[in-house]
Design goal:
The chain contains 8 helices and 9 strands. By secondary structure, it is an alpha/beta fold. A 7-stranded parallel sheet has the order 3-2-1-4-5-6-9, with helices on both faces. The chain has a two-stranded parallel ribbon with strand order 7-8. α4 links the parallel β4 and β5. Helix content is about 45%, strand content about 15%. It has 2 domains: about 210 residues, NAD(P)-binding Rossmann-like Domain (Rossmann fold); about 35 residues, no CATH class. α1 crosses α8. It starts with 6 loop residues before the first strand and ends in a 7-residue tail after the last strand.
Amino acid sequence: MAIKGKTAVVTGSTSGIGLGIAQALARAGCNVVMNGLGTEKDNEKAIADVRSHGVRVAFDPANMLRHNQIADMIAKAERDFGSVDILVNNAGIQHVAPVEEFPIEQWDAIIAINLSSAFHTVRAALPGMKKRKWGRIINICSAHSLRASPFKSAYVSAKHGLAGFTKAVALEVAELGITSNAISPGFVWTPLVEKQIPDLAKSENINEDQAKRKVLARQPTSRFVTVEQVAALAAFLASEEAASITGANYSIDGGWTAQ
């Protein structure tokens, strides 16, 4: 896919979707700067997994709540690797509550991590991409960038905003060899979701199979999206073959948003 030797920065990449994307890009020959706030042991394992593909891998602990740390992460990647060619904004958090009970600090954190951090990474990475006349920006949105759910006001707002930001950036750099696209997964089978199933079963007084079906009620396929499927789409969007795709928001949600 002609991205061997390029450098990717992937936020929130020490587990789940982000780790899957880091692995897919590494398999394609990309050097990877990983980022996340996991435990040291978990981070070391994730880094080793990505490095096993024979590429250079670095880890940056930048906190996505801190714009100065984000800018420093991009600058350091440019210095150490020579370029940031591919930027994947994946970091995100969630909180569920009615609007009138939604903690203000949770609202602020979700908007900061799920939306504003992408502005800060793109703002820092674009000058280098423009200079080289090549770049790939991939923002991991959600089916909630296209649909709303009750009690997820901050998450829905952030993901709608991220989808719009993706399109605005695409138009600004359309003639410069840089693309900006979004991926909007439905429910993805990640370690986090796997851990939530027993809790849901317990709270609803149902078994775990019933809990899974309840979660998947919105996806006509009745199957979870896999991390590998999302990662494969991200790797394609990073490729030269996707050079004419920009400003797009790809649903990968088992038919959720087709309804």
